[in-house]
Amino acid sequence: MRNIVLGVVAAGISAALGWVARTYLWRRKLRRKRAFFGLPENSECLLVVNRDAGSADLAVHRHDVFALLELSALIKDCGANAEVITQDAARQGFGERTEFCVGGPGSNRRMAAHINAMLPGVRINTDPEPGPDKLAFQIGAEHYRMESGVTEYVMLARLTAGRRRAGRPVFLFCGQRAITNQAATRYLVRNHERLARKHGNNSFVLLLKVINSAAYGPDVVDLVADVTRAAQAPLPEPENVTAS
């Protein structure tokens, strides 16, 4: 009888210790997630949505809606609250609340403002006229052209204002098409732990390539490069061409 009682007690102690260990690890993981996203419990954040560049109405592309849904689930997991606003209604400064900004500068003026202010080494061709450089990225000295449905690019960035790393970050999902914005949000949701270990609370800018979205949607994504240094430095001066 004594052995049975001791066995039950030992099993109870082991179960309790296992529960305590799992709870500790879960809480530590949640703290790191909240710190990376700047989302303490019950905090407020902004979801800045663009408009559908291909629509005459003030509509939101369905892939951008899917991106917002994925971000909303992430925000809820952190115990925070989100306010959804349109790109032309965002009037607050930088660093007061965590911000998730979706869409390229041609359809999101808030994105254009962030790029102009914090990423001087980035240029995006927003000319509506068709051509090989339509929606092309220039990051530093490199150019990235889009081949619609086959090879498309998107920038995923976590930025903090200057030396105010204690301020809340802004996350940019700046793609050549709406489906690439969704691909970037999905990449962030899946890889935020690895990104937090590598970058901590520092700013970073990643260039992602979405492969064959016509067949695979937003699911097949490759990391092209960490372009933080090139994106935050001024663009190189164009070379002078001397006529002979």
TrEMBL record:
The chain crosses the membrane at residues 6-25. Keywords: Membrane, Transmembrane, Transmembrane helix. It comes from the Bacteria. The keyword Transmembrane helix applies. This is Secreted protein.
